[in-house]
Amino acid sequence: MTAPTSAAPVTPYATLLGFTRYVDRTGPTKATFVGGLRRQRASRHGFNPHGQFVKALKADVAFHTGGTHLAQVADLVKPRWRPLYEALTPGATRWLHSLGEPAGVDLAQTRDALAMLGDLPVKINPQFGVRFADGRAEAVRLHFDEAPPSEEATLATLHLMARHMDAVLPHAEPVLVDVRRGEAHRMPADVKPEQIEQWLAGEAAAFRAIWSTAA
C-alpha cells in the first residue's frame, strides 16, 4: 500500500494588485487578507469582472475612437455586471479624453515582469501602454475600486512598475489611473526611491511570514 503523498506547498506569491492591497491594510486585517490570497492561489480560482471593460478601453485607444467602445460595453456584458460598468464608464471616458486628440495616441504593448522583494515574487502586470505622437509613453495600471487609491498603494504600484520598466515598456512612465474619477496618478518628484524600497522590503518579509503561518 502506497503512503499518501502530502499536497505540494503553496509558495508565497503576489500580483501587483494583491501586494498593493496588502500594504494598504493595517493590523489583523493584513493576516486575514494574506490568508485569503493563499487559499485563492491553492484553489487556482479567480475571476476578473473587468476584462471586457479593459478590452473596450484598449480598443478606443487602438482605433482612435474616443470612447465609442466604452459607451457600448455596458450593454454587452451580463446584467449582473452592468451597474459596475456603468459606474466605471464616465471616469474612464474622462481619462481617455485627457490624453488629447485620439489620432495622437496609440496603444503600446506592455509585458509582465516578475519583481523580487527579498524572497517574495510579485507579478508586475500593467493593463496596457499608451504612446503619444511626441514619443512619450506611459505604462498604465487601472484602479477600479470605489475608494480612491491610498497614498501607500499608489507609491507601491508606481515604484514597482518603475523598477521594472525596462522589461514592461522601455522608457515609459508608470501611471496609475483611478478609473471611477478619471484621474491619473504619477510618481511625485520629491520621493526617495531607496526609502520606498526599504519600506516595501519590510512589507514583503511580513507578507511571507504571514503566508507561512497560514499554511
Biggest pleated-sheet summary = 5 strands, mixed
| DSSP summary, beta strand count | 8
Q: How big is the Rg?
A: 19 Å
Q: What helical percentage do the residues reach?
A: 40-55%
Order of helices and strands: EHHHHHEEEEEHHEEH
| Termini Cα gap | 28 Å
Shape: globular
Average pLDDT, rounded to a whole number, is 92
Number of helices: 8
Strand order of the largest sheet: 2-5-6-7-8
Structural class: alpha/beta
- Strand % is 15-25%
Residue stretches low in confidence (pLDDT < 50, at least 5 long) are 1-6
Characterize this entry briefly.
The chain has 215 residues and is an alpha/beta fold. The chain is built from 8 helices and 8 strands. It starts with 13 loop residues before the first strand and ends with a helix.
